[in-house]
Automatic annotation (TrEMBL):
Residues annotated as domain TIR: 2-131
Pfam family, one: TIR_2
Gene Ontology biological process terms from the UniProt entry: signal transduction
Organism: Mesorhizobium sangaii
Family annotation (SMART domains): TIR (SM00255)
Protein name per its UniProtKB record: TIR domain-containing protein
InterPro entries reported for this sequence: TIR_dom, Toll_tir_struct_dom_sf
Length: 303
């Protein structure tokens, strides 16, 4: 089985106005189309291009236009263009684009005698439907015609996009509204002796209980600067500890941090803040964590 259903050989001048709309229509109905390699320019060999396409494609579409006919193709190449066959099966499908039978007859009588689709009477979508019927009769017969038309005119795609948007709306409650990070935890927690509410945690660090945001997302404008967070420090034996002051405004949760000096403890708290703010160097964090673990181990031994 060949890789492509069709290839399209065409003059470069016809790419934007006709060939690309045809390719879009062909692909929208399910055909595998190869055409970029078959944009013919001055000096190219028509027969070699066709032969190359037939190696990897079931059929070849050739767009015959004024630009196509103006190129200096050898007469034998034009004469043999639509007579190429594999066994008894014709594999070249000619399309006349802005040319008449007389135009083709003047260049190649043999070519003028071959049945071709004419863009004067058919749109790219109509031509795509005719090509589908020849190239993939199974797909043509097995798919509702209205569905094929919907694919070509974009209705099917718009319907899919609408469904996706509806799904996005449904999924938004599971994503951080500031950065889109996924929900990682949702659970009921007590808020008073008699009442509870839903705690929602997101991968970015945002946490909220009900509608009350206890920890903002780093992408949120409400995410505080470190210098704006009230910090308390105290000394215990040979270690200093730093923590966010209880009842601090803005509210921001960080685990208490330790250090040999007050400055080290605050710096460790700042490192934790930077992790929350997505600015942290993981290797540095490992070194700092190992140092803190060493301090705690030493303190336990002293106690």
């Amino acid at each position: 089985m060949k890789q492509w259903d069709v290839f399209i050989s065409h003059a470069s001048e016809d790419k934007e106005a006709f060939v690309e709309p045809l390719v879009i229509a062909l692909r929208s109905v399910g055909l595998q189309v190869w055409y970029d390699k078959f944009t013919l320019k001055l000096g190219d060999s028509l027969s070699q291009s066709i032969d190359l396409g037939l190696v990897q494609s079931e059929y070849g579409i050739v767009v015959i236009s004024p630009a196509f006919l103006s190129k200096p193709w050898p007469a034998y190449e034009l004469a043999g263009l639509v007579t190429r066959e594999i066994g008894a099966r014709k594999v070249i499908l000619p399309i006349w684009h802005h040319v008449t039978r007389d135009d083709v007859l003047n260049r190649s009588p043999t070519l003028a005698d071959k049945l071709a689709v004419n863009t004067a009477h058919s749109s790219p979508k109509d031509i795509a439907m005719q090509i589908l019927q020849v190239v993939r009769p199974d797909l043509y017969a097995g798919t509702d015609r209205a569905a094929l038309i919907a694919r070509m005119d974009g209705t099917a795609l718009r319907n899919i996009e609408a469904e996706l948007e509806n799904m996005r709306d449904e999924l938004r409650e599971f994503l951080c509204p500031d950065c889109g990070a996924p929900l990682t935890e949702s659970m009921e927690v007590p808020v008073t002796d008699d009442d509870s509410d839903n705690l929602r945690s997101f991968e970015c660090g945002r946490r909220q209980i009900g509608s009350d945001i206890t920890d903002p997302c780093p992408s949120s404008p409400s995410f505080p600067k470190f210098d704006a967070i009230p910090i308390q420090t105290y000394r215990n034996a040979n270690l200093w500890s730093a923590l966010v002051a209880p009842g601090a405004v803005p509210r921001f949760w960080l685990n208490p941090s330790a250090g040999r000096t007050e400055e080290e403890a605050i710096a460790s708290l700042k490192e934790q803040y930077d992790r929350r703010a997505k600015k942290y160097d993981k290797d540095r964090w490992r070194r700092e964590q190992a140092m803190i673990d060493g301090y705690e181990s030493q303190r336990d031994q002293e106690d």
